[in-house]
Amino acid sequence: MLRIITVLALLFNLAWGNNIQIENVSLVDQNMSDDYYFVEFDLSWENSWRTSTFESNYDAAWVFVKFTPKNQQLWEHATLHYVNGTNDGHLAPSGATINTTSDGVGIFIYRDSDGIGNVNYQNVRLRWDYGADGVADDEVLEISVFAVEMVYVPQGAFYAGDGQQDFGQLEAGNSGQPFLITSEAALTLGGTNVNNLSNNNTINMLNDDDFDYSTTRTLPADFPKGYDAFYCMKYEGSQQQYADFLAHITTDQRNTNDGPLYVNAVNVFPIEDGNHYAIAEHPWRAMDYLSWANIAAFLDWSGLRPLSELEYEKACRGPENPVNNELAWGDDSWYIEGLYTLQNAGTANETIVGLGENVGNANTLSIYSGADAPMRCGIFAASAINKTRKETGATYWGIMEMSGNCYEAVISVGNSQTRDFSGRHGDGNITSTGNASFVLLTDWAFVNTVGVGFRTSEISTRYQANYNDPDRAKWIGIRGVRTAE
Q1: Three-state DSSP class for 355?
Q2: Most buried one in 200, 262, 330, 401, CB count within 10 A?
Q3: CA 283, 397, 483 angle in degrees (round to 5)?
């Protein structure tokens, strides 16, 4: 059996938003014949749901495991058991379902029936096939378990574009009307035929598309169009999540992804056994001041992937009909286009004083003026008064801060490089220099950022659809997805 096991239960989300926590991690029931044992832990988070009416969706935790030989600095990704499309070997607690991804990178765990409220799953057991990762039976290890809240976005048709006809919005031919996405089949971009996914103009775009009414391109079938089901991060990536990432990569990898992080400082410290730990200045706030390469590395390391700009609109709008100047909560109403008054700023209890009632709430200005910092992840859902989708700024599916706070990085349809994007997922491993894996270089377009864009506020506006800037910016945050299997 394994001689010594040091188990580190590191919280991938700390105490912001819905307070997801992993506790009581242990390795149990080793099987040396088949080279596996179970990673056991308790998992809880607040304000969970599953519904079979209306939205017909649920929230979930994406869970993955890292390990390292003791007293070394090289953390590796653990391969979780998956055979013939089954979850054979994983043990879900009462009230929960576990789905393993076919690549063994991680699992989704969520309610097995309709319900709403907090969940607390005791003694979750994941089978780790350590032999597949080259680990010997008697090797001395450290292990860490991570979890991040996700939201399931079901398969189904949706509209791209809201009919406002500005800033390069997507439309059906040159009709000025939104385009209905009905499958993942290849699409013709540009032209005037209403069966084509075109853009109504590029005059006001920061970087133009390479298609228009007179020039057509093909969007391949492999490009994620949002019709198929996927999981989306419920919140923007937090400062604590990024600190955990930095603490579990090597010095060379960290030098690529660390740096002057503006007000969101994350400090990394060595400890005597050669590993590191990182301290986030404001763990509960959204992480900002990132580059596209930083985002790509983080998502690869987490086993996730970027979202396409079409998936962004699906994640916000759902199957509803579009509204001109539509925001993530489904209409164009705002409470304030200015700075909110914060109470307990920078803490786990950061809240907003005087949220608007029966109107949309979102942080649109704090990263440009005033506090010069994004707000706590999930802050608009923390009010005892404001509970509607509009008041909390939630999307149709219950995803938070898709309008406001940090900008959402997306893969654009408007460039030949990013049209090669096939939705390939990260495998949990980044290069020795700290970038996303070599197999993702072209697919994720992070080498020169050509075709990488940003969305925020009005969800169909494509002013920065092809931003093409490799530098860090204080308004850039993290959001990842994973295709549902």
Answers
A1: coil
A2: 401
A3: 80
pLDDT band at 19 (very low <50, low <70, confident <90, very high): confident
- Which stretches does DSSP call E strand in 115-156? 115-128, 141-153
Structure tokens at 67: 């390990």
How much is the pLDDT for 255? 85
Mention every residue, 6+ apart, whose C-beta is less than 8 A from residue 84: none
Q: DSSP class of residue 214?
A: S
For the whole model, what pTM was predicted? 0.93
pLDDT at 315: 98
State the DSSP string of 242-292. Answer: HHHHHHTS-HHHHHHH-S--TTS-EEEEE-TTS-EEEEESSTTBBP-SB-H
Instruction: Tokens for 385, please give them.
Output: 């008064």
Which helix H or strand E contains 69, and what residues bound it?
Answer: strand 59-69
Distance (Å, rounded) from C-alpha 469 to C-alpha 94? Answer: 48
Q: Which of 482, 395, 472 is nearest to 149 (CA)?
A: 482
